[in-house]
Amino acid sequence: MNVYLVNNAPTDLATMLKVAKVNVWSRLTPGSNVSGFTWNALERVDAIIIELAYPSDELHYVLAQSIVLQRPTLCLYPKNRQPHDMLAHLNKPGVPKTVSTRSYSSTNVREVLDKFLQGIDHTVSLAETPNIKFTLRLTPAIERYLNWLAQYRKANKADYIRKLIKDDADKNAEYQRLL
Question: Are 48 and 72 in contact (CB under 8 A)?
């Protein structure tokens, strides 16, 4: 998947996208007389992601082209830095449904990006990859049950345990408030 990214914010959206094996374009190819942009560069991407809170001339050009080309476009802004003028324009009638706006925080930005990309290509995922090793000692009875569960659910034991913990964390109101 090819995504064009306009991001002048301190949040490193490009790295998050690259981890998910998304090809990130961040500069249009020079070659025309209009602000140094090639007219057809945005025709070659599958989606466009624009961080609205830190505007630039490029942002306005890319947003206009995304509307004209009707590319799936995600316009992001931090919850504490809402761009009221830009959002007023994007909420007007006539802006295609391909353009969506979402606020984000440091804790949910990956989730917001993941939901947008999954809507375009369900094979792309920004879900965190497990990289912390943890040793867990079990009784033989618990291990037998876990082996049976993994076989019954057609999942490996580690994935099953991770899912249990994630589901519990998602349902835990105190933990969610802490986030």
Answer: yes
